[in-house]
Design a protein that fits this description.
It is built from 15 helices and 13 strands. By secondary structure, it is α/β, with parallel strands linked by helices. The protein folds into three domains: 121 residues, Gyrase A, domain 2, CATH 3.30.1360.120; 127 residues, Up-down Bundle (Four Helix Bundle (Hemerythrin (Met), subunit A)), CATH 1.20.120; 164 residues, 3-Layer(aba) Sandwich (Rossmann fold). Helix 11 links the parallel strand 11 and strand 12.
Amino acid sequence: MNFDETIAAISTPIGTGGVCMIRVCGKEALNLADQIFLGHSKPSQHISHTLHNGYIIEPLTKEKIDHVLIGIMRGKQTYTGLDTIEIYGHGGILNAKRILDVCIKYGARHAEPGEFTKIAFLNGKMDLSQVEAVADLIHAKTESARRSSMAQFMGNLSHEIDELKSQLIKLCSLLELDLDFGEENLISITKESIDAQITNVQLQIEKLLSTYNTGHLIREGAKISIIGKPNVGKSSLLNAMLKRNRAIVSDIPGTTRDFIEESLDIQGMPFIFVDTAGIRQSKDVIENQGIQSSMEIAKNSDLILAIFDGSEDLNEEDINILKMVEDLISKQKHVKALFIANKCDKENYNPQRTKNDFIEISAKNDIGIDKLKRSIGDLFLNNFSIESPMITRLRHKNSLENSLVSLNNAKISLHNKMSYEFISLDIKNAIRHLGEIIGEVTGDDVLNNIFSNFCIGK
């Protein structure tokens, strides 16, 4: 990246609003501001982190384009580490675009998506995990996602990785000292001590890895499929969870033939609910396609809500669905399940018709829905601290797993009584994999993929 260039972009959302903000960054940012800003004095004469009242003008014609506030931020004290100005004008896309056009005309170029943050990363203002946190913070749709992103941006994951690397670097240094000065008895390190230190780091990495499922779901959302035979209340349950009529409710079996997908925030975590076609034996070709789709959706879910009619005895279709779900969660460990007895408000409802661990609800009359929501939230969060270090991306998970492999190779070399040189090499590989998480060793393809998900102006 060429730090000699000055870039500019509209940083507020496109559309009508009270205020728009245009950000300009680079070595010529203050000179550009001197040309296009008309106030009591030139922006370049002011100290950093100050706001000034005036006008953006067209320098050639002296036309006043907008009455603005201009923020001056200098050098290493800024988000990017380069001179930056921020122009706060009246909202509206035409006004914002006109100000940006003047910035481009007098020395700046259009910024690429995420380029301001990319400059910050390359300038050492933040590491790669913090860069990813900025993107996640911008796109957060729930409170848990926002808090998790903010904690990562503040460096909780970075500090954890730095601590792991520090322990391994110290161990590596002792091994190499032993290689160089072992005969002089300057240091004393036993194989038992090496093994214990490697094991300690492995346990810490495994603990961090265990946060991936929760971290990933907080960021991406957990997929919940609602399954059951026809007319047990699947669509009614979806409507009750959403507190609005989203799915068609009918006494006619087979009404839902295609799946319906809706998002819901439970305990600050995003969940994607899928109402599926009723599972039964059918001669209808189209309905059978819907039933097959329901089963596939269940297999790819994070949670299955299996719903049954508690006012009737479980029949063969119910038993088959129970067996299907129990078989699925036994084979796919990431899939969870909750079993629901609906229509608990009916006179002929009998709790003994279902198992003791069934959650009793009436989707029609909103009974037990809040309890069900709490059960869903507890399944995934289970008093998990959002502010604790966690990994939210597959990239982090892969790097941690590769680090574990390298440490395991180091232990194998140690147990095979190989030279400390080989053990040190494996530990260095583990350090390198940990460094990938915070961007110490990162290819252009990884960087391009990360910054492609940013909006222009950030």
